[in-house]
Amino acid sequence: MTILPPLRSRPAAPAELTNxxxxxxxxxxxxxxxxxxxxYEIEGxxxxxxxxxxxRPGEFVGLIGPNGAGKTxxxxxxxxxxxxxxxxxxxxxxxxAHQSARRIAQQVALVPQTTVLDFGFTCLEVVLMGxxxxxxxxxxxxxxxxxxxxxxxxxxxxxxFATRLITELSGGxxxxxxxxxxxxxxxxxxxxxxxxxxxxxxxxxQLLGLVRDLVxxxxxxxxxxxxxxxxxxxxxxxxxxxxxxxxxxxxxxxVLTPDNLARAFGVRAVVERDKWLGTLxxxxxxxxxxxxxxxxxxxxxxxxxPSASGD
Length: 311
Fold this sequence. Notes:
Blueprint: H1 15-18, E1 33-42, E2 45-55, E3 60-64, H2 71-78, E4 86-91, E5 94-95, H3 101-105, E6 108-111, H4 123-128, H5 143-155, H6 171-184, E7 189-193, H7 201-216, E8 220-224, H8 228-234, E9 237-242, E10 245-251, H9 252-255, H10 258-265, E11 267-273, E12 280-287, E13 299-300
Parallel strand pairs: 3-8, 3-9, 6-7, 7-8, 11-13
Antiparallel strand pairs: 1-2, 1-4, 4-5, 9-10, 11-12
C-alpha cells in the first residue's frame, strides 16, 4: 500500500493561477469591514438581527449556518445591496450608507450564489464588466483593463473560454467566470456567497486555495460556506449564524464544537483533527430527534485553544 505524504492544510493554488503581472487586489491592500448591531427585516420578519461582525485585511472569515440563518442577507448588507433596517456597516471605519455605489464597487466585489447571464456575451466580455467601476461614463477599456481581465481568467482557469458565449458554459464554469469578473474588479474586500456550490471537488479546492492565497497577500475575504470541513480548512475565523443571530464567533476550534453544531443544525457530530491536513474535520453522525440531549463530548484529537472572535 502506498502512503501519501501529508498535504498542506491550506494548499497553494496552481502556479498558473497565482502568477501574472496584474495584481489581484487594489494597491491599498485589504479593507476592513464591520457591522454594528445590524438588522434587516422584510414585512416584519427579521432575517438578520443584532449582528456584530468584523473582518480585517489579510483575514478570511467564513459565515456558516443552516439554510435561512441569514448568511446571504448579511453579505448583501455588507456590500450595500440592501440597506440594514437597523445598525450600521462600516468600510474602513467609514459609514457605508454615505458612500456612493461606484466608490463601493471600486473596493468591494460580491460573488453571488446565482448570477443571471442569459445574454450573448463572451466570457471575456463578462470578466471585463468587472472593470466598469473604474471607467468613466464614456471611457472604454484600456490595455491595462484587458490585461487585468486576462490575468483574472488565468487565475480561475477560464482563459480557454474567453471567446465562448457565457450561455454555452456549465453552471460550474459560469461560476468561475463570475469569480474572474470579481477579481478583475481589483477589490480590497471579496464577498463570496456559496462560491463552491456548483463546483466539482477539484475546482472547489482550486478556488478556495486561490482565495486563501489572495488573503495571504493582504486581501480581505468573507465567504458563506456550507461545507464545514472546507470552512475549517481555509478560513481564519468563523461566524455561526442561527435564526438571524450570531450563535458563535471566533477561531475555527471555538466555533466548530458538537454543542454549537447541535444547536444550529440539529445534528449529532464528531469534530476531530484530520491526520493528513492538521485542520478540523466535521463528521455528521445523524439528526437529533425531539427530546434528544444536545450532544455528549464528541470532539476528538488535539484542539486549538478557543479565543475571542477578534471583534
